[in-house]
Each structure stands twice: as structure tokens, then as C-alpha cells.
Amino acid sequence: MGAYELSLLTLIGINVMLALSLNLITGFCGQISLGHAAFYGVGAYTGAMLTTSGQPFLLALVVAALFAAVAGVIVGLASLRVREDFLAITTMGVGFLFLGVVRQQEWLGGELGISQIPETGLGDGGFIMLVVGATALVFAASVYLKRTWMGFAFDSIADDEDTARTVGIDVARYKLTAFAFGTAIAGIAGCLYAHYARIIVPDAFGFTVSITILAMVVVGGIGSTIGVTIAAVVLTLMPELFRFVNDYKLLLYGGLLLLTMRYSPQGFAGLVRQAAAKARSKSEATP
Amino acid sequence: MSLLDVSNAFVRFDGVTAVNDVSFSLDDGEFVGLIGPNGAGKTTLLKVISGVLPPGGGRVVLNGQDVSDKPPFVRARAGLGLSHQIVRPFRSMTPVDNVALAAGATETRNPLKALARTDRTAARARARELLDLVGIGDAAEADPSNLPLGYLKRLEVARALALEPKLLLLDEPLAGLNHVEAGRLADTVTAINGQGTTVLLIEHNLSEVMRICRRLLVLDQGRLIADGAPQTVMSDARVRAAYLGESTEDADAAA
Q: Which residue in the set A147, A148, A166 is minimally distant from B52, CB to CB?
């Protein structure tokens, strides 16, 4: 693989992690978030500030996850008060709040962001291995989580949180856990991105990025780890492979979101499930 | 020993007093029917006991623990099982998983411990027993959205039983069931009560209520107007008046 392919692979890994982290909150636990890029940004800024001030990269990675998770739990507290469309608007507000604050902070570089982010010390190969390894780990953790009793409780909350309470589920703690896990992973993705790009600006964590991540989750199939992963890979590759797609990226993502919600709310994973069910009933019908 | 003490429960919705200063106690092991005309506040009172609805006043003591300002999940853990009048299955799950989630309440108690546990075998086995018990074992793996109301009503009961409650609150579990099914479910609930579970039942099917309940509470316009043995209560003049004057258009009938 050439340098370009390796760089693309890194970007895919970061986007898959981001999409899976939002899928944990929105897909598994049913809590819509339109401001996920803010946590990605918290991770990126935290990581960049730490390594530019001479701290080791791995420490920066851990602290980035921690800071993003703390921010996530605070926003998660809002999810205990407001639901669905109100939560969507609240999280959107959080996204804009993050941008608004960061842009005004001189010590965070203001509009210019942070440049000259140092190398990780892992070398190019080592860094890519780290990203690929972390992506695989997040994927495996997602698959595992869905099978645990925590995943089972998340299913019930996503389905009907009032009823979940009547069967003894502490909905508030589960929601906060989902926000903590999901935003910690987004923080890690952000720190990795900062050290991949070596320069970060506020706009890299804006509303369009939140929508892009959401598009990956929705198009792939809300709640489906494999579907979301495939969608994240495809939606990352498309603008890279076809230049014209890059020019109309937002149009494409917006259009895909609209088409998915209108014609296949379960996303790509839902289409596959339907086709499989059809094939099964056909093979049962023909002796 | 009293298992449930409700004192001075009070609920008001925009100008309508749905539950007005209701007090009563249930002893351990009792089987009590809660009846009254439509809109009398029966379901609202049940919601106050289960914690789904914050009361405007009053106290609820469950098994010696004051749960008045505790959320529903704390009450469920303290031994309260609820079957809803308007069925609310988890629609993304099969009936067996609906019940298994409740049967595994100890597994989900602590989120981090729940993260370390994946085995659902025991909970699912228990869930199948309960589905068989209420007579819907044949629909264990069905899609809840395709099941008739009679099945979903019994699914509600099975899910409530899966919590192994000390107090079972049943809100019209027999509605939507035919005569034979209703009789059978009533017998099942009686048998469960015989094993020590206290039951508080809201039911419009008066013949079943008179057959299985040992005590009746009667609500009318939010007030408790009678409390006693079924025959005595039904011969009470105020109860008869409340029933004869029954109207179906009460504003909070569905509440």
C-alpha cells in the first residue's frame, strides 16, 4: 500500500470508530444525538493540547477519552430530562456551543485551531497499526456489548423507557453509561484524528460532521454494528474515489439520510434482513 | 403484616380530581379486587402505587419501605410487578425476550455487572415457563406486533410475574380474552396468589371478580366508597348507585 492508501485507511478507521460510537448511543440505547462531533472535538483538542505541550501521546489518548466522556455524561444528563425531538435539538445546541466556545478561545488557537501537533513517536506504521487495532477493538466491543445484559437493557430503553422502568431497569444509569462509553470512543477517535491530520481547526468538528456521522449510522442501519461499519467505510471512500462526490458531499449525505428514513428506516441492514427473510420464505414455499 | 400502605393518595389532572384522599392497606397474601365505574380513578391509583405517575400528595409504603418519592424501578426491585391496561410489549423483542428481561432483573441491576454477563439461558427458560403458565407458550418467538390483544394482555401478566413480585398489580388482564381464556387466566392468578403473592386486580369482568377476589375496594369519582368482602360490598347502597349511575363518557376513563 502506498502512502495515500495508508492515509485513507487511517481515515476510514477513525470514521468507523466515530460511527460505532454514535451507534452505541443512538442505535443501542435509542438516544438521538445531533452533536456527536462536539465529543470528537473535545478528544481532538484535549489530545492536541497535551502533546503540543510535551506530554506523551498515549497519555493524551487516555485523557482525551476521559474528557470526552465527562462532557458526554454532562450532556447525557440532559437526556434524562428531555426526549426524542427535544433531545435532538438539545444535542444540536451542544454541538454549536462547543464550536462557539472553541472559536473564541485564544489558548485553543481560536479560528486557526492548533497546528504543528507533534508526531506520536510510534512512526507511521505504528500509528496506522494503532488506528486499525483500536477500530477492530471498538467493533468487537460493539458486537460483544449487544450480546450482554447491558445490551439487552439498552434494547428495552430504546424500545420503551417507561416500561423498562417498571421491570426494574435503572434507565438513568444506563443512559449515562451509553453516553459515557460512546463519547469516550469519540474522544479517542478525535485524538487519533488530531495526530493524523497534525492540524485541527474548529470547523472539523462542526454540525456537518455530526450529520455525516449520523448519516453513516442511519444509512447503515440504526443499531446494526456491521451495517454501520460498512456505511462508514463506503461513505468515507466515496468522496475520495470520486472527486465530484466530494463537491456534493453534503447533498449526497443529506439525500441518503432522506431516502433511508423514507424508504428503509432500518437502513442497509434492514434491507438485507428483509431480503433474507424473503429468500427464506421462498425456499420454504418451493418444495 | 401489611405489605402495602397507601395513605391519603391524591391526584389532580387539570381541574379534575382523579384520586381523592384514598387510603387503604393490603395484607401479605391478600387477593383484592379494585372496581368502580369508568373514570373512577382505578388505573390512576395503580399508577400512583407503581410510581409511574407522581402523586399530588399522600404516601405509599411498600413492604415497610416508604417509596412515595421513589421511581418505578426502585419499586419494581422492592417487589412490585405491574401489568398495564394498555399493553406495552417491547416491540423489538419476542415475547420470550420480553419476559426474560424481567426475569433477569438481578442481571440488569448494576450496568457494569450487566456488561460482564451474556448468558440468557436461565432467564429464557424461566420466561418460557411463565409464557406456558399464562397460556401463550405457542407465541414465544412471535413478533409482538402480530399478536392479538388477548396474547399481549397475558404477555403483560407473564412479564410482571417474571419479577417474582410480592405484590402483583393487574390492570384489566382479562380484557380481550374470550370466556374460556379469561376463566383460565383468573385461575392461574388465583394459584399464584395461593403461593403467597399478594394481588391487586382491576377488572370489569364482575363475575370473575366475584369468583376469585376475597376482598373488594370500590372507587367512585376518585373516592374509596367501599372496602370489604365481595358480597357485603356489592349489596352496599352507594356501590349500587355508583354502578347504576355508570356513564362511559367520563373524561378520565382512559387515564
A: A166
H or E stretch covering A197: helix A171-197
Is A157 within 8 Å of chain B by CB? no
Cβ(B11)–Cβ(B19) below 8 Å = yes
Beta strand segments in chain B, E:
2-13, 16-27, 31-35, 57-62, 65-66, 80-83, 167-171, 198-202, 215-220, 223-228
Residue whose entry in the numeric block shows the C-alpha cell 477519552: A65
pLDDT for res B223: 93
What is the model's pLDDT at position B205? 86
pLDDT at B249: 42
pLDDT, mean of residues B140-163: 94
For residue A83, the model assigns a pLDDT of 79
Neighbours of B15 (CB within 10 A): 6
Q: What is the pTM of this model?
A: 0.90
For B:161-180, CB contacts with A below 8 A are: 162-163
Residues of chain A numbered 165-184 and touching chain B (CB < 8 Å): 165-171, 173-174, 177
What mean pLDDT do residues A125-146 have? Answer: 96
**Cell representation of residue B21:** 384522599
A186 Cβ neighbours under 8 A, 6+ residues apart: A17, A18, A21, A22, A36, A39, A40, A43, A68, A72
Contact A220, A213 (CB under 8 A): no
Edge-to-edge strands of the sheet including B167-171?
A: B80-83, B167-171, B198-202, B31-35, B215-220, B223-228
pLDDT the model gives residue B247: 44
- The answer, for A155 touching chain B at a CB cutoff of 8 Å, is yes
DSSP-derived 3-state class of residue B161 = helix
Q: What is the pLDDT of residues A28-46, one digit of tens each?
A: 999 999 999 999 999 999 9
Q: Does A158 touch chain B (CB under 8 A)?
A: yes
Domains of chain A and CATH, by start: 3-285 (1.10.3470)
* Helix (H), strand (E) at residue B163: none
Q: Tell me, what's the ipTM? A: 0.88
Minimum CA–CA partner of A168 in chain B: B73
